[in-house]
Structure formats: C-alpha cells, structure tokens
Amino acid sequence: MERRSIGAGALTVGAVGLGCMPMSGAYAPSHRRREDSLRTVHTALDLGANLLDTADLYGPYTNELLLGRVLRERRADAFVSAKAGLRADGVHVVADGRPGYLRRACDASLRRLRTDVIDLYQLHRVDPDVPVEESWGALAELVGAGKVRALGFCALGAGTGPGAGPRGDRAYEATVRHLERAQQVFPVSAVQAELSVWSPQAAWRLLPWCAARGVGFLAAMPLGSGFLSGTLVPGEGFEPGDVRARHPRFTAYAMAANQVLVAGLRRVARRHGDGVTAAQVALAWVLAQGPQVVPVPGAGQARWAAENARAAQVRLTAEDLVELSELPVPIGA
Predict the structure, then answer these.
(1) Does residue 191 sit in helix, strand or coil?
(2) Which one, of 185, 110, 181, lies nearest residue 148 by Cα?
(3) Distance between CA atoms of 63 and 58, rounded to whole angstroms?
(4) What single DSSP character describes residue 125?
(5) Which residues contact 222 (CB under 8 A, 6 or more apart)?
C-alpha cells in the first residue's frame, strides 16, 4: 500500500487506516464479536492498513485491551494511534485535560495495549477548564519520556455559529486557535477531524492549516458512519445502543433523501471497473484531498477492512472529482 507521512518527521503509515471504535462501541452492539474484531485487525495489517486508531474511552478501555492482544504478536507491523482527554463519568462523558490525569491515562493505555510506546497520542478534546498549553505541555513530556513518539489533536465537529455551517469559512475556527496555541508549546504532528463527501467542512479551513505546516490529517468517519457505503437501508432502523439512532442524518426521511449521494458514488465507481464500490470511491475522494490525508474508516468485520484497504488503489480523475463536488448538500444537520 502507498505510504503517507504523519507530520514533518519520519513517521509514515499506510494510506488507509483502521478505525477501531466500532469493535467496542457506537454502532450495532449485537454485531460485536471479539474474534471477528481480531480478524479485522489482522486483515488490515496484512494489507498494509497499519494505522490502528483507538482511545481509552472506547469501551471504555476494552478497545485497547482488544488491540493489545494483536500488538503482543504484531507490534512491529502496527502504527498505534491512541487518545486521552475524555473520560466516562457515570452516564456522561467529560473532557479532562489535567496534566496529572493525562500522564496516568498514558501509562494505563500502554499497559492495556501491551506496548512500550504509542506512535501517535492525541488530545481527544480540549478541556474548557484547563488551558490547552497545560494539557499539551503534559503530552510533550510524554514524548520526552519516550512513552509517545508524536502528538495529535482530535477536533471532531466543525462547531456552530455564524459561518460554521455548510460552506462556512469559519468552520473549525476555534480549533485553529487551539492548534496555534499548542504549536507554540510542541509540534502538532497530526489533526483528526471528520472529513467525507457529505461532511467536507474540514477541507475548507482545517486541512489548509495542516498542509501549510506539514501536519498530517486523519480523516475520521470518511464513510459517513457507514451511510456512504450504500449498505444501510432507509427505514430499517438501528439498535437502541447505536448512536446513529439519534442522528438527524439517519432518520428514515433523511436517509431516503440522501440516497442521491450514494447513487453519485456508485456512478463514479462503475467507471472504474467491476468490483469498485461506492465506499471505495468515497475513500478515494478523501485520499485525493491531499498527500498528507489518511482516511481512518471504522470496521468491525474483516471483509469491510479489506474493501477499505483496497480503496488506496482507486485513482479518481478530474472529471470524477468535479462530479462528486457537485453532489447536493445532505439532508440533516
């Protein structure tokens, strides 16, 4: 698989990564099976999709324990991307950027992952009660201690307010301000945010910031939480524990209205030959946004991980990109 750089250093990863959250939370609880998840990770590594994206919050903790079983045997094959700064507090999830907490969280993640070092350690969210310089400084100390190789900044969500919606030039403005402050303390190697055909806001403000500074970009939810794969049926519904059951883009009405996006992806896929899927075109679109962009699609089944990895071989034409750029704005916030 093609390799891409993470930051200005010598860290490189496969052009397509593996989002591990679906193995331990968020989607279709009844479909989570440990052995299926282990096969998924091994398949991704076999195909060169070696960036494994996890967090202590996923589970919580069980996702790191799962990956630890694979890393015990295949640490040299993997690039481990972990996160800290969000913690489960009863039924709520709260930001916690206190330096002492981040140091303890890193040590705990290292134990669960069965590794001596985390390749990319990301601040999962900024704690509004802790200056970002303090949180980032604590993470920088972990690099100095040899526990972490590089630091990343997780910035899911474009924010709200004037100009922050579709085509808004102020999307991610608060994130950029935090990044500028963190960059004064220690280099930011990667930024992770949602980026897909139906959520392109990061490409207009956040991605240019990264490109200008040699910062890698991890594209979260590049398949629109599964919708852009074309495998979800409008009106079929979701399990109670599936976060999509509460998302406005996954109502029966919105899913039916947004099928035009899937149809557009399939149209492009047909031009690239038999076997190319809508999901692969969606990932190829993300890959085409810049040489430092690495999509990190989630998968809980080996067949999906294999299909996603093969998207690195799809090369979209200028005509394809224009056609995809003209797809309508999706229904649902």
Answers:
(1) strand
(2) 110
(3) 6
(4) S
(5) 195, 196, 228, 282, 283, 286, 295, 296, 297
Q: Are 118 and 109 in contact (CB under 8 A)?
A: yes
Residue indicated by tokens 């969500």: 157
pLDDT digits (tens, 9 = 90+) for 195-204: 999 999 999 9
Q: 148 with 111: CB under 8 angstroms?
A: no
- Rg of the chain over Cα atoms, rounded to whole angstroms, equals 19
Strand 92-95 and strand 12-14: pairing?
unpaired
Yes or no: say if 18 and 49 are a contact pair by the CB < 8 Å rule. Answer: yes
Residues sharing a CB contact under 8 Å with residue 314, sequence separation 6 or more, in sequence order:
272, 276, 280, 281, 283, 284
Length in residues, the chain: 333
Q: What is the mean pLDDT of the chain?
A: 92
pTM score: 0.94
Q: Which residues are catalytic?
A: 58
**Cα four-point dihedral sign 177, 195, 289, 49:** positive
